[in-house]
Design brief:
Layout: H1 90-101, H2 104-126, E1 148-154, E2 164-169, E3 176-181, E4 197-201, E5 210-212, E6 218-224, E7 227-235, E8 240-244, E9 253-254, E10 265-270, E11 278-283, E12 287-292, E13 301-304, E14 322-327, E15 334-339, E16 343-348, H3 354-357, E17 358-363, E18 369-374, E19 381-386, E20 389-394, E21 403-404, E22 412-417, E23 424-429, E24 433-438, E25 448-451, E26 457-462, E27 468-473, E28 478-483, H4 494-537, H5 539-543, H6 547-579, H7 606-614
Antiparallel strand pairs: 1-28, 2-3, 3-4, 4-5, 6-7, 7-8, 8-9, 10-11, 11-12, 12-13, 14-15, 15-16, 16-17, 18-19, 19-20, 20-21, 22-23, 23-24, 24-25, 26-27, 27-28
C-alpha cells in the first residue's frame, strides 16, 4: 500500500484568499511564583516517567548517500595473468607463456633487467648473512629450560626403616598416595621389624592418613580405578589381600596359603572387567594367577611361565620367575610379563594352551626386567628397564629394540612413561639420580637429571597430570618431585614427530632383521655343505670330534703298538737257533768269538701302517 496520494483540484475551488496581518501577544492569565511553596517542593531523582511531545509517526527514516568501495586483487604467484587465462590449466598457461616469450618487447625488457639482477645476485653471494656483528649479545634459547623441585617428603614412621617397594596414586585426582615398605633381601631376618604400610595425603607429609596392618609385609599395593576405597596388595609370603579403608586398617579378605604363590608377590594389577572386582598377580615362582575379590579361596586361572611346553609337561620349578607385570585397559585380553631371565613374554589370555597364551618373547636385558610399561599413545611400543640401560621396543620387531640409552655407571631400578607428554619417560638409578628423557630433543643423554638423595632409588610412579612424580628409596623415604610445564605439556607437532620417529626406527630394525635372517640362512647352508664334503673325504676325523673319543683312540693305538712290538721280539728270539745250523762251515778256533753286531732297525709294525691307511 502506498503512503502517498495525489489528487487534483481546480483553482476556483480553493476558496477565498486568506489575508494575514501582524498583531502583538495577548496576556490571557498570569500566575506569579509563591515563595511559600518553595520549601515544599521535592526534587524527584531519578524520574521513572517519560513524556513524548513529538508527533507519533508510523514510519520515519533519514539517510544520506554513501560511497561504496570494492576491493579487487590479482594473483601474483607467477606474475599477473589475464582474466581469460585459467591458472589451474597447465596447457593454457604454457601456451600463453610461449606467446609472451616470442614477443620482441619481452626479449628487449629481459636484456635490460638481467644486468641489474646479475649485479644483485653477485652482491648477495658476497655478503655473509650469518655473520655475528655483536658478540656480547646472548642468543635466544630455542628450548625452554627444564627444572625440578622437591615438594614433599614422606618418611617411614618406624625407627627400623624398610625400603619402599611400591607406590600407587589414588584415582580421585591423585590426592592420596599408597606406599608399601618391605625388606626383600634374601633370608633377611630383622628383629622387631614393622610390617605396616601407609596411605598419605599429598598435602600432609607429617602424619599418614591410614596405617595398613597386614599379617605379613606387603610388597605391592594398588588402588582400584573404579572404587577409591578399595585396594589390593601382594604379600611377602605369596598371599594376596583385599583392603577397604572404610572398614579399618585390617585386610578384608586374604587368599588361602595353599592356593597362593610360593614366592613374594611383586605385582598386582586390576583388570578392566564389568564387575570391577577382578585382578591378577605375578610372582618370582613363575606363575600368573587371576583372582576375584568376591572369592579368594582359589584363583580363577593360573598360567605357568614355561614357554614351549605343553600344559601336562609344565613344571613350576623350571618356570621363569616374573619380576614385573604390564596391563593396558584398552586391550583387556593381552598383557606382558617381565622375567628374571631378562625376557619379556607377550601373552594373550584368550589362548587355550600355554603356547597360545604366550604369544612371543623378547630378549631384552642381561639381568631381570625391573620395569615394563607401554607408551600411553602408541601401544605397540613399550619401555623396559634392566641392568644398566633403558630400551624402547616395538611388537613388530622381536630380535632387537628400536631405541636404547647408553650404559650407565649405576644400575637402573625403575622407569615409567609420562602420561601427558608421550616422548618423555623417567628412570631411577642406584646412585640416587632421577633422569628425565625426552627422545624428541635428544637420545644420547637425559634432558634433566635430578639428584633426589644419596641413597639408591627403588621405585617411582607418575601422576596423571604429568608434573608430579613420586620416588621411593631404600631407606624408606618417599619424595614428591615436581617438574616444569615444558616436561608435562605437548606441542601440536609432537605427536606427529613421535609417530614418524617410531615408524622410521621400526622400519630400520625390520630391514636389519631381514638382512640378518638372510645371512644366517646363507651361513647355515654353506656350513652344512662344507661339513658334508669333509665327511665324504675324511669320515674318521670328522666323526670323532669329541676330545674323550680322541684320547681313548690314541691310548688304544698306543697299547696295540706296544703289544705288537713285544710279540715281534719274542718271534725273533724263537727263530734265531733254527737259522744257525744252516751254515755248515765251522768257525776258526784260534780266533776269539766276535761280539754280536747291533741288530738293524726293525721295520714298523703292520698295525701302524694299517692305522695310517685308516686315517
Amino acid at each position: 500500500m502506498e503512503i502517498q496520494y495525489v489528487y487534483q483540484k481546480k483553482r476556483s475551488e480553493f476558496g477565498r484568499q486568506c489575508m494575514f496581518s501582524d498583531k502583538g501577544p495577548d496576556l490571557i492569565d498570569n500566575y506569579p511564583s509563591n515563595k511559600k511553596f518553595l520549601h515544599e517542593y521535592i526534587l524527584r531523582d531519578p524520574v521513572h516517567q517519560g513524556t513524548q511531545f513529538s508527533v507519533q509517526q508510523a514510519e520515519h527514516q533519514l539517510n544520506t548517500m554513501r560511497a561504496e568501495y570494492v576491493n579487487n586483487s590479482m594473483c601474483h604467484v607467477e606474475g599477473g595473468w589475464p582474466k581469460d587465462v585459467n591458472t589451474a590449466d597447465e596447457e593454457q598457461t604454457k601456451r600463453y607463456r610461449r606467446k609472451i616469450e616470442k614477443d620482441e618487447g619481452y626479449t628487449h625488457t629481459m636484456m635490460q633487467l638481467c644486468r641489474n639482477m646479475e649485479n644483485c645476485i653477485l652482491q648477495n653471494n658476497a655478503i655473509n648473512i650469518y655473520q655475528q656483528y655483536y658478540t656480547d649479545v646472548e642468543p635466544t634459547p630455542l628450548i625452554d629450560k627444564s627444572s625440578a623441585r622437591t615438594v614433599n617428603v614422606y618418611q617411614d614412621q618406624y625407627s627400623i626403616t624398610r625400603p619402599v617397594t611400591h607406590i600407587s596414586w589414588s584415582p580421585d585426582g591423585g590426592t592420596k598416595l599408597a606406599v608399601t615398605h618391605c625388606n626383600l633381601s634374601f633370608q633377611a631376618v630383622v628383629v622387631n621389624e614393622s610390617k605396616h604400610s601407609f596411605i598419605w595425603e599429598v598435602e600432609n607429609p607429617n602424619v599418614p592418613l591410614i596405617v595398613l596392618k597386614p599379617p605379613t609385609a606387603s610388597v605391592c599395593l594398588e588402588y582400584n580405578q573404579k572404587d577409591t576405597n578399595s585396594l589390593v596388595s601382594g604379600q611377602l609370603n605369596g598371599q594376596v589381600a583385599v583392603w577397604d579403608i572404610r572398614r579399618g586398617s585390617e585386610p578384608v579378605e586374604l587368599s588361602v596359603v595353599e592356593q597362593s604363590h610360593r614366592d613374594p608377590v611383586h605385582n598386582v594389577l586390576w583388570i578392566n572387567s564389568k564387575s570391577g572386582s577382578e585382578f591378577f598377580s605375578s610372582s618370582t615362582d613363575g606363575q600368573v594367577k587371576w583372582w576375584d575379590v568376591r572369592k579368594l579361596s582359589e584363583p580363577l586361572e593360573t598360567l605357568v611361565l614355561e614357554p614351549n611346553k605343553n600344559q601336562e609337561d609344565q613344571v613350576i620349578s623350571n618356570a621363569m620367575g616374573a619380576s614385573c607385570l604390564e596391563y593396558e585397559a584398552t586391550i583387556p585380553t593381552r598383557f606382558m610379563v617381565g622375567t628374571e631371565h631378562g625376557v619379556v613374554i607377550s601373552c594373550n589370555r584368550k589362548g587355550k594352551t600355554p603356547q597360545e597364551k604366550m604369544v612371543s618373547k623378547f630378549a631384552c636385558h642381561l639381568g631381570p626386567v625391573l620395569a615394563l610399561e607401554r607408551n600411553p599413545a602408541y601401544l605397540k611400543n613399550f619401555l623396559t628397564i634392566g641392568d644398566w640401560t633403558a630400551k624402547i621396543w616395538s611388537e613388530d620387531c622381536k630380535e632387537s629394540c628400536i631405541m636404547w640409552t647408553n650404559f650407565h655407571k649405576a644400575m637402573l631400578t625403575d622407569g615409567a612413561w609420562s602420561p601427558t607428554r608421550y616422548s618423555v619417560f623417567f628412570t631411577t638409578r642406584t646412585d640416587g639420580i632421577l633422569d628425565v628423557w625426552d627422545i624428541l630433543q635428544q637420545q644420547k643423554q637425559a634432558s634433566v637429571g635430578v639428584k633426589v638423595c644419596d641413597e639408591a632409588l627403588r621405585t617411582l610412579r607418575t601422576h596423571d597430570l604429568g608434573r608430579l612424580v613420586a620416588v621411593g628409596n631404600k631407606k624408606g623415604t618417599t619424595y614428591l618431585v615436581e617438574f616444569s610445564e615444558n616436561l608435562a605439556s605437548s606441542n601440536k607437532n609432537d605427536k606427529a614427530l613421535l609417530t614418524a620417529m617410531f615408524e622410521r626406527e621400526t622400519r630400520r630394525e625390520k630391514i636389519l632383521e631381514a638382512r640378518n635372517r638372510e645371512l644366517r640362512l646363507k651361513h647355515r647352508v654353506r656350513s652344512s655343505t662344507i661339513l658334508d664334503d669333509q665327511k665324504e673325504k675324511e669320515p674318521s676325523e670328522i666323526a670323532f670330534v669329541d676330545s674323550y673319543v680322541v684320547s681313548a683312540e690314541t691310548e688304544f693305538y698306543q697299547i696295540i703298538k706296544e703289544e705288537t712290538k713285544d710279540t715281534k721280539a719274542e718271534e725273533e728270539e724263537t727263530i734265531e737257533p733254527d737259522v744257525v745250523p744252516v751254515h755248515e762251515e765251522p768257525e776258526p778256533e784260534p780266533e776269539p768269538e766276535p761280539e754280536p753286531e747291533p741288530e738293524p732297525p726293525k721295520p714298523e709294525p703292520k698295525p701302524k701302517e694299517s692305522k695310517k691307511k685308516k686315517k
